[in-house]
Specification:
homodimer; alpha+beta; about 1000 residues; 10-stranded antiparallel beta sheet
Chain lengths: ~1000, ~1000
């Protein structure tokens, strides 16, 4: 056992391991030489945070029979390799791995690594927990996972990453460029995958490197220098791979041995450099020296790169140097070159003909939904955690934060991972949820118990004590506050309780939004004789809806599959009632047994009772299976249909209509594996369509990709609008790309785009908007029509590495059946120009549904002894209609991270696309704000510092064409009012004055 | 560029890299625990000195598409891994690699590594340049290559390897055990490959570990504790491979991550240990933790072994420790166990049914011959180097030593390497020869020029100056002394010179043997009118023999293939004459043109002119091609015949007989690809049969393995005798093994043995002896018959890794034809008990033929102005008939290494199997011996020190059955007489008194 000295002589180490050879000492000190072609060698590894193996398997290097990969080796071997020569450099990207490694390192190694980071030898770039996908994640998740990584880096190393490094995601979003790029403070953004037609044109025009304006609203104020690689993120062609056992020719420069080859290898290097220079502006080119999970023994790469730098520079035709994307970016900047402007985004992505990576927009729809649910829950849970007071060591929201962060990886929420890895992400989310649920329960318990003037969050309170002292705190139900995470499968033991013996069910309805809100809520109940009272004791209108077979089947199968329980008798009814809750607050409802004979359920069978101007239909595409000659199959990544088939009942099945005071439902069994419920809510003007899809049959040997088509008679001129990561809307034109003359070879797949918030189309009079409950793929293949892909079950792998067919099943008692998914679409028709308000506000409601907590009242009088309604903000205040609070989070140091987001783009709504403002004092009514610091989006540096460092790039063409972008002004420390211009997000770090008798005051 | 500090703090390093983990510090300090099952983990790598890649390719890690292997990585990564934890241990074996690495290391690394060797963390075992084969090498080569490695280790590290580690060779020889084991001073010998039937029995009887008496003559005085592994030299079954990307389950002990598996892995470990304990005596078992070219990133192995040691010892059921074969040997020794005795050897080796590794005894017969020729040449060249005085920096014999050493590797001379690797060995031998030839030429030039009383070797002499100052010394012909290395293909420009204009050809005939010797020599000449005079001016008898088409074809094709030259007109004749030369000396002969009409060549055609009591015939075995069901084909390793076919002319071809005063030759074209010449020499009583075999046809889809059968009518009762590495003879009985009840499944291949010197059979009256000119496989498949496999050409790989069919070709001008080999067998019949003398002395003559050097005399009178005869030893002295000088070599420090070998076994010859003695003073007549130190066989320690340390093992059964072994006594420093008992080899380090005016005095 070794003891660890705190003081370490790094110099000695460097000297010892730097002396590679007695006779061959390589000069690797070269920096940029102005007159020459500079080849920037950027040593890197690309470490997927889960793909073929789970994140932990990749980290420790287990399960190598699937893929030889061990991130621990990479980081372990990197340290001595960098110490051996101070000219060597490396970038590391994925913080999920880096943090796993970091927490295992001795203090001695940590000191050394801090010095390496400080000196720039080791540069942490991108810096999120993972290299998130850019199609399937919600922008709030992207911000959160980036913040998690960036703040760790800031705290441990005192540095802020300068570079966006999205080298592998399968297409690139506008939100990535402007929000997770420019607004984070990155100086440049690098990526590897753009459409093969686009790439060819850009090579030809030397326009792989651009200045990207990702946001119409923020324009050049949020632009970023962006680099698309000539091919991929690997070394250039010509044999420059140097992993252990790689077969590229090493530089054999020992004249005592056979096969001396220095001149041949220098020639290879120069040839590859000149070839790349030919498609690149300026005399700087970058070589990405590494690829997936390489540098397991870092020495093998550096040894060869040392030699290349030494001998190539001796040769003198080109200049080779160790570099990083930062050094490269600075070199590009200092070249004073003009760069083309790029707008919008890089979707969809095809890597060759018939290979559109648009299938993954929908792949694993259940996982995508789970991620989205957890995303909303995490937002709410952090609010409640703040109200109660954060507990760093006890249950908190960190585990969910971590699970959600990892789930944004470009092989996670994308659905392009192996099944066992998808299971791992789900397991992590589930564990994270469990801990967050404990936070939520304890916070609600605390808020219910304490008068607002006393508040929660005093760590010496008995609540806190209970948490700390309980070993298995996951299982604690604080004050019997119970959650029902499986409400989605109609499973809620708390609400299914027997209310016949005078017991009542307490429902605490929490609203995470910044506005007061009313919504119909639905809970399963076991009996029909129930009444609902509000917290003021008034009975309110409620409605019972029958639980149909489709839902009962889902409930029983999945409760058995996931909980291992066979539920008691299924509840017979859904009980629906309208609840309302204040901003960031809750209201309490009481469900009691009643002696009444129950509400009358009115329903009748009819064939056509709901008349609509909008037709909803379902089809499936048959997934191409691939042939020897043309092997590209439809799969987890790629959507390649070879036929389309309308889904219609073989026999005419009657439609069931349920009507009531709150909800009308139309139930249709479209076929044996597709069930649809159309819902209209009293007081809501949109249609909610719930679909239950699956198990998709495949016994006919045909993979199927199921779409919903929402059809109108509108003349939409090939044009539709899709959101970018749930934020900006981008105009799409069928069979068209703004950047090049599209050769159409996949008329369906090539028109698919990722949808996170929704889509809309319009004609001269109206617009049809559709909102979604998760990431899906969508398009408008025919004018007047919006189509959304709901589910996919395929029989073939599509040859992009995952090596599994996308054929999800759910197993219970050793029997596996195809995955059934349940989901909702929401649509509405508005007059032209008036749809944004619905899309934005209902979009927020879908993302942040009411959070329900249950308790039982047995003899006690809850209404008189407990807090029955609460708002986290000033009761007189709510956020402006065009602003959402996307983060409210207490940090470990007691400060609060607050993000406010303007929800509208410039010109999107005639009333709401305007500068607006939020009064901070009203948001924290019982606290005294002592300091507000505006931060970069990832909260790792002051905004003012970030702006000071921003590089101003020269762009081709007049930049005067852009109309002036306004942004909210500085925050007056006395007024504490935050201005927000359209699409602006402002990230604030808030400190409160500490009152004498409380540590944390909510 | 890093500068190198001389003083390095190893402690700091160890602490820095030893602290694997903040939370997991492993206790790896465990040593042997007496009461428990001790699992000795022996970390090792097995690095073939050439096999699928060349030695240099393996070292630098090039050509990885053939095999991922880089020895540089292993040694580079080993140093920090050992520094990280002082309990970690490693053994390194192959000095060819270690030396390549060592000479590239900085002084700082060298200091660290010396400390690691000193502390025992890094143990250098086996210690030869390679892990030599035990079937195909000559014992002198085995000694030389071991000495080369051992003396390097001694010089650099001051240590002597304790362990024989022959883990991969394909069967194990008696000479390895007693000579290269016990006589080298090893305490034990480890190996992996023994017959599968033998292994099964030994497991059952716990007799894998034995005390091996390899020599009948030296008995227990040369015994060695020997360990055959239970399976191979890899980790035990159960998943204990930890190379980068290996798929054994790692020990996942981080409770923060998923898949924690400590208990499962501990259970795996304990189960594997108990299983091995079940077949092993004592409570010590060894796990060979590594295999071919592993530890490229040593950290990956040690990290897991650290954990196993830590957790297994916490578990406590067995005791796990870092160990080495030395520690294991000591533990076995201290156990006081009794061990079975093993006699003879472990040949042949089959790893399963129908898989006898007896093909490689003959594979690549041309390479085997080249190695043997170079072996003899190296012995002679060192003698001449000594006479001239060694030049460390100029041309010397080191390169040949190195090439020969590497060629002894068990995938080199064995013929089991890929073709490009075989070419590499040949290239190295050729380069080594070229440099040695320069030494030989300069030495002969020097000896010819200087009167013996003056001597060569003064480094200030003009000869030396010429060597040092000439940049391209390879090409220098000192005093026009020219060699003819291609005499074997009848190509010798020097002797083919035009002698018509009064020029004469000088032939200096050097005899490397310690006895005066007479032999017929043959050189090609261009014309028939030549006479031969001896150095006293007397014309001596000579004979011209025609050069037949078979030889002319070989000459022209191979001169073009290897030299790129088309020879001038072929010589028409071989000129033969009888030469004699003194011990370690030369005589000069002069070939002149003559006006005579030339010698009459008498020859006639006949069908049957030579009557013999011995019949020589040729057959081929058809090599089995393998089927899907029974895939084991005959190949480079494995001999698996599926038929035997007599080779006879399709039409009766006339026999050509050439008669003369010195030689009678009978030429027979047996078929289109097999030519035979039977030779009888005047004054010699044996028959020499030369065969020219090839290109073996394979167009019929049948691989062929060609054998010569020498048939008598003797009743030999299944019994025959084969040599062990050219030294001891071992009795073999067909279809029988002394150690177990043989299940015969390959009645031919399973009776094959390696032959290096020869074979004999006998009946009650006579013995038939056959000697060979290279390593071959041989057997006696029928009573009265000896068969020797001469050549093999096969169409299939035999699935032992080389992945090439053994199908050798020789290419010239882009045309490749199957390899033709040329070789000789020598046989003779003696009365029973009298054959040894011929076998031993002619064996020496075959190994050490006359070395011929040529010059031209043009007008000068060579005989009067030059030294025309010379003996390196006292002219009145020659070695006893039963002693050979197998090493005479001047070392870099000026000392001389002398090895004297008794040539007879106990009881082998009634006169010569006796104690004999050598007078050292007579061997160095012009020098004064100041000190003689007797050394271990590999000359790395004093013999007396070695004997003092020798472990005395307890053996099963009475050891009193052995008759007393005598050995030569101590050498009296005044008398300087060396006694040698049968089979004894004595290794002496001799120092000479320095005379005032000469640095080196010969």
């Amino acid at each position: 056992m070794a003891t660890i000295p705190v003081v370490v002589s790094v110099v000695i180490l460097a000297c010892l391991f730097g002396s590679e050879s007695k006779y061959m000492v390589y000069n690797t000190s070269q920096t940029i030489v102005p007159g020459k072609l500079n080849v920037h060698l950027v040593p890197h590894t690309h470490d997927d945070v889960g793909w073929l193996k789970t994140v932990d398997q990749y980290y420790v290097g287990s399960n190598n029979s699937i893929q030889g990969a061990c991130v621990q080796n990479i980081l372990d071997s990197l340290v001595p390799a960098l110490l051996a020569d101070k000219n060597r450099k490396f970038i590391y990207v994925e913080q999920a791995f880096f943090q796993r490694w970091w927490r295992d390192q001795s203090e001695a190694i940590q000191i050394v690594v801090k010095q390496l980071v400080k000196s720039g030898q080791l540069e942490l770039i991108n810096g999120g927990m993972c290299m998130h996908d850019e199609a399937a994640p919600h922008y709030i998740d992207m911000i959160d996972q980036t913040t998690l990584g960036h703040r760790f880096i800031k705290n441990e190393f005192g540095v802020t990453p300068r570079i966006g490094w999205q080298i592998d995601p399968f297409g690139h979003s506008a939100v990535q460029a402007y929000l997770l790029g420019a607004e984070v403070g990155f100086d440049s953004l690098f990526f590897g995958r753009i459409d093969y037609q686009d790439r060819a044109k850009r090579k030809n025009e030397k326009s792989l490197e651009v200045v990207w304006h990702g946001s119409r609203s923020l324009g050049s104020t949020a632009q970023i220098f962006s680099v698309a690689f000539p091919e991929n993120y690997e070394p250039p062609p010509g044999g420059f791979y140097f992993e252990v056992n790689d077969d590229s020719p090493i530089v054999q420069d020992d004249i005592n041995l056979f096969d001396y080859n220095v001149q041949e290898r220098v020639n290879d290097f120069v040839a590859a450099a000149l070839s790349q220079a030919n498609i690149t502006r300026t005399n700087h080119i970058m070589w990405t020296m590494g690829t997936d999970f390489k540098y397991q023994y870092a020495h093998t790469w550096f040894r060869e790169m040392d030699k290349f730098i030494h001998y190539v520079n001796m040769d003198g035709r080109v200049n080779a140097l160790y570099s990083t994307p930062s050094i490269y970016t600075d070199a590009k900047y200092e070249s004073n070159e003009f760069w083309p402007i790029k707008s919008d985004d890089f979707f969809p992505y095809a890597d060759r003909i018939h290979a559109y990576w648009t299938g993954y927009f929908t792949s694993r729809p259940a996982l995508k939904r789970y991620v989205r649910m957890m995303s909303g829950y995490y937002l709410a849970a952090r609010q409640l955690e703040f109200f109660r007071g954060r507990n760093s060591s006890g249950p908190n929201t960190d585990l969910l934060a971590d699970a959600l962060a990892i789930a944004q990886h470009h092989d996670a929420v994308t659905g392009t991972e192996k099944q066992h890895v998808a299971n791992d992400y789900a397991k992590r989310l589930s564990m994270g949820y469990d801990e967050a649920e404990a936070v939520v329960a304890s916070s609600i318990a605390c808020l219910v118990e304490s008068p607002p003037s006393v508040g929660c969050g005093n760590p010496s309170s008995t609540f806190q004590q209970a948490i700390i002292e309980t070993p298995n705190w996951f299982c604690l139900y604080y004050y019997a506050i119970i959650m029902c995470p499986l409400l989605n499968i109609s499973y809620c033991p708390a609400s299914e309780t027997d209310l016949s013996n005078g017991k009542s069910l307490i429902v605490v309805v929490y609203n995470p939004l910044g506005w007061k809100r009313e919504d119909i809520i639905r809970i399963p109940v076991a009996k029909e004789d129930v009444t609902v009272h509000d917290y003021e004791g008034r009975e309110i209108e409620s409605q019972l809806l029958p639980l149909f077979d489709a839902h009962v089947g889902i409930r029983n199968y999945h409760a058995a599959a996931y909980l291992g329980v066979t539920p008691r008798d299924a509840p017979i009814y859904w009980l629906a009632f309208q609840a309302s809750a204040p901003p960031l607050g809750f209201s309490t409802y009481i469900i009691s047994g009643s002696k009444d004979s129950g509400k009358q359920i009115r329903y009748r069978n009819t064939k056509n009772s709901v008349q609509k101007s909008v037709d909803v239909s379902y089809s499936f595409y048959s997934g191409y299976n691939g042939t020897k000659k043309d092997p590209q199959a439809s799969g987890a990544y790629i959507f390649r249909p070879n036929g389309t088939y309308l889904i219609k009942p073989e026999v005419q099945v009657p439609v069931t209509v349920v009507r009531g005071p709150l909800i009308d439902e139309v139930h249709q069994q479209i076929n044996s594996w597709l069930y649809q419920i159309t819902r209209l809510y009293n007081g809501k003007e949109h249609v909610e369509v719930e679909h239950v899809v699956g198990p998709i049959p495949f016994e006919d040997g045909i993979g199927k990709e199921v779409v919903a088509k929402i059809t109108t008679a509108m003349q939409t001129d090939k044009t539709f609008y899709t959101d970018s990561n749930g934020r900006d809307f981008i105009k799409r034109i069928r069979d068209y790309r703004a950047d090049w003359n599209l050769q159409v070879n996949e008329p369906v797949a090539g028109n698919y785009y990722p949808i996170n918030l929704g889509m809309y189309i319009h004609d001269d009079e109206n617009e049809l908007s559709v909102l979604v409950d998760r990431a899906v793929g969508g398009s408008s293949i025919s004018d007047g029509q919006i189509e959304l892909m709901l589910h996919r079950r395929l029989l073939n792998d599509d040859s992009r590495g995952v090596a599994e067919a996308l054929n999800e099943t759910v197993c219970s008692k050793e029997k596996c059946i195809g995955l059934t998914i349940q989901g909702k679409l929401y649509f509405r028709i508005d007059p032209l120009g008036e749809g944004a308000k619905w899309r934005r506000s209902v979009g927020q409601e879908i993302y942040s549904p009411f959070l329900l907590a249950f308790s039982e009242q047995d003899g006690d009088n809850w209404l008189t002894s407990r807090v029955t309604t609460f708002s986290g903000i000033d009761t007189s205040y709510s956020l402006p209609e065009n602003v959402a609070m996307i983060t409210l989070q207490q940090l470990d140091d007691g400060k609060v991270l607050l993000r406010l987001a303007h929800l509208y783009e410039v010109g999107e709504d005639k009333d709401l696309s305007v500068m607006t403002h939020v009064e901070l004092k009203k948001l924290f009514p019982s606290k005294k704000i002592s300091k507000v610091m505006e931060m970069s989006l990832s909260a790792n540096q002051e905004r003012s510092e970030m702006e000071k460092k921003r590089l101003v790039w020269k762009v081709e063409g007049a930049s005067g064409s852009e109309s002036k972008v306004t942004r909210g002004g500085p925050i007056d420390p006395a007024e504490l009012v935050v201005e927000l211009s359209p699409m602006e997000i402002r990230t604030l770090l808030i400190e409160f004055a500490i009152t004498h008798h409380k540590l944390f005051d909510a």
